[in-house]
Amino acid sequence: MQKSLKRMLRVGMSGVLAIAMLAGSTGLAAAQAVQTIHFTGYFDKQLRAQMAVTADSFPVVNVRLVKQNEPDMVYYDVGTSILISKDEVLTNYHVVQSYAELSDGDEGTLTVASPGSLGQPVKAKIIKTDPVTDMALLKLDKEIDAKPVTFTNARDNQVVYTIGFPKNPAGDLVILDEDFPSTYNTIAKSRVFSSQASDVPGKKGIGSIVKSMAQGNSGGPVLDQNNRVIGMMTFVYGGRTYYITSKTLQSFIKDSTTPAKKQVAVAGKVSN
């Protein structure tokens, strides 16, 4: 059925060709093969093998959308995510926005898959969003066999790595209900330009790296040399890639797990 339908890819710094939003052993399942990763920058053999294991903690996100008034067209949004627990991932809101704002009569699915297990996609649901800061928390139907991340703060000028799912050199994106391309994701080396950026009007809680990353990296991590997350890529501005800081990400996660205070009636008033 899918093969007979027309396909439209929505590419942001999330991956519809029509829209550009940019928007050692672990005891876990086998990592993706090194040759399925496109590396940019210098990575020696040992680091490539290490990053292949690390990459499993950053699943691809697919939104598949069929609109009621275009039944012969399939729209896709492709992005990246960060595994914060075995069954939860963080990504950018704009990656899943078309699914979150699904119109009556339209049909959509939301799936994620670890790059070492692309043949085993997992359905997900959105449990919390913040469109202003461009964050979304997704709950998975079952656990992913990869290591959840740890967070740390950034420093100006430090060496960092990014992992995401932009188009590969052949121009292909990872679509989970089609044949997979020869390389799945891209791992790049970069450097922090500003750990607390203030040069983008109206944006707070962000930092920047020196490279302008390709579309498809939305929701992907910025990692230090110990593979700790210092931020999540969100947009490109002025030739640099901006990320949501680890502090902002952790606050969002904490707020999503904090139960709301029970309202108590006191002397005719309601107080928290």
Automatic annotation (TrEMBL):
Keyword hit for Hydrolase: yes
InterPro entries, per the entry: Peptidase_S1_PA, Peptidase_S1_PA_chymotrypsin
Hydrolase among keywords: yes
GO MF term list: serine-type peptidase activity
One Pfam family recorded for the sequence: Trypsin_2
Keywords: Hydrolase, Protease, Serine protease, Signal
Protein name: Serine protease
